[in-house]
Design a protein that fits this description.
The structure is a homodimer.
Chain A (H helix, E strand, L loop, with lengths): L8 H14 L8 E2 L2 H7 L4 H13 L3 E4 L3 E4 L8 E3 L6 H5 L4 E11 L3 H7 L7 E10 L2 E11 H4 L4 H6 L2 H7 L6 E10 L2 H6 L7 E10 L5 E9 L4 E10 L6 E4 L33
Parallel strand pairs in A: 4-11
Antiparallel strand pairs in A: 1-3, 2-3, 5-6, 6-7, 7-10, 8-9, 9-10, 11-12
Helix pairs in contact in A: 1-3, 2-3
Chain A binds a DNA duplex through helix 3.
Chain lengths: ~280, ~280
DNA sequence: CGAAGCTGTATTATCCATCATACAGGTTCC
DNA sequence: GGAACCTGTATGATGGATAATACAGCTTCG
């Protein structure tokens, strides 16, 4: 185990710089402020700034040139996968990229109350719980926890779950899946997801919680998915509908545009760097 | 000042326990293991466990009873506001809740390259940049950064932006907004958003990036929104469409069900006085 | 060339998260 | 009542992260 405790301020600065890089705020190939400037800007010592830059360099986001400066690596290789609303990745497979699934856990347990409630289970009813990780080109990008009522889970084997989509197995059993509700949110990575997704604890994650119902309204699947935001994001096209009184956006249906896959402009949690504030005297 | 650096192990345990609570693994009202037990389980000192519990208590997730134990708070009151796909909150207003907008920043600047590209601007073209914070019942829940081409931004004033929805101002100018694309992702809070949203730096945030186009395909608005995940989340209903070969989920259109979800979050009042800036009532 | 700026490296001192331990006071339950 | 829990609080010790400072070698540019 790594008993070496991770830095705090260093990590903070690392995250901030990383966000600005992936957001395109610091253009690829561009030089970022010098270590003394960064140290002053964030009110930390230069040693700490170096720690943050070490992390960025180790991840290949940044390239350091002694005597010259630190530069954003040109090939921002880490473009997120794009999934449409319905969470469809099929166009990725068309593109020749391979997705694999690792089954981390499989078993029958008593469900947490919240899940039992959302599936409409009777008290005492058990569920099949599985944890899977999806990989694209060998890299993990999602951490899936599913709960399925026991009577339904028993219609397929552990090996089948590891090999085929869960929804396919459910429908094979004769259950019709017509409706679902889902919620998208954000959270921080706990120890298990962090390890499975090859992330640091405390990294941000996209979450998707989906509850699938059969036509009678009975819950048949509870899916909780965690996504690495640097490798996955939800995209959708919207059209403006409604007449003048109440116009609003509505998702544009139709085939997911297999258009240019990604035009990532993610986000910037940070803000504009106030330029021109330099002039730090590190020397006496 | 808050130079108080966050703990590491304490934060780890905090995240662990938090995940188990929100997942329903530890049922509401239940008592969680005693501090000595937790300390032994995670191989840390009791002081560290207490730090983690302090965080949970401050967030209202647990309640401590001296001499008795630490309990999961019954009413997990902090239910996020629910917005449907199109980011519509109208049902909240129907419910009598008030949303306000604070304009934090307004000005004309040279756009970051990523934004210029997504709006299809010519080199050298400037944009109007604004930063707003939305509040519900006085509590901030979203941090909006918008970029609008200068020629369009000049058709309205700063005061108008603070008082009316941006899209309404754009349409008033004669520009037709028919299409948009958006992406949903997750990130960590940087210093400015954290301060505006009354959060710690490094808190998780939901992000929404939307680019609005006019019928000719010209970009007219770049919206970057950050949402507090504990106060806001995206919900949607899905239906299963397509014939047998390729069945998939598709968003169910129609009015967003005024679902059970939004309840008043009884957060501890008082805390941070919202910083003095204008707060204007505005419809979603 | 030479000044200015940059990264790489080293040293010392300080701060703070964590540990280990002890004790006080409340609750639960037999 | 009293044993066995629990949370609240205080103590000192320790190690790692951070700060402050100094200097080396490199690149860029006038």
């Amino acid at each position: 185990m790594k008993s070496s405790v991770e830095p705090l301020k260093a990590r903070r600065i690392y995250l901030l710089l990383r966000d600005r890089i992936v957001a395109g705020d610091l253009p690829p190939g561009g030089r970022l402020p010098g270590e003394p400037a960064l140290a002053a800007e964030h009110a930390v010592s230069r040693v700490t700034v170096r720690r943050a830059l070490d992390l960025l360099e180790k991840e290949g986001l940044v390239q350091r040139k002694p005597g010259s400066g630190t530069f954003v690596h040109d090939s921002r290789a880490v473009r997120p996968i794009v999934a449409d609303l319905s969470n469809v990745l099929s166009h990725l497979i068309d593109m020749g990229r391979s997705t694999d699934v690792k089954l981390l856990s499989f078993g029958y347990v008593a469900p947490p109350e919240a899940i039992a409630e959302s599936l409409g289970l009777k008290p005492g009813e058990r569920v099949q719980r599985s944890v899977r990780v999806r990989l694209i080109d060998g890299e993990p990008f999602s951490y899936l926890t599913t709960h399925v009522p026991e009577w339904l889970g028993l219609t397929y084997s552990e090996a089948e779950l590891a090999a085929r989509p869960l929804l396919e197995l459910i429908e094979r059993s004769g259950v019709k899946t017509e409706r679902a509700t889902q919620a998208i949110n954000a959270t921080l990575a706990g120890p298990e997801p962090a390890a499975a997704l090859d992330l640091e604890i405390g990294s941000p994650l996209l979450t998707l919680t989906r509850i699938v119902h059969d036509p009678s309204g009975r819950g048949v699947e509870h899916l909780h998915a965690l996504y690495r935001p640097d490798r996955y994001s939800f995209h959708m096209d919207l059209v403006r509908i409604g007449d003048d009184g109440e116009r609003r956006w509505s998702p544009a249906l139709g085939r997911p545009r297999a258009s240019e896959t990604a035009k990532t402009d993610k986000n910037k949690a940070g803000e504009k760097p106030t330029r021109g504030s330099r002039a730090i005297k590190q020397r006496s």
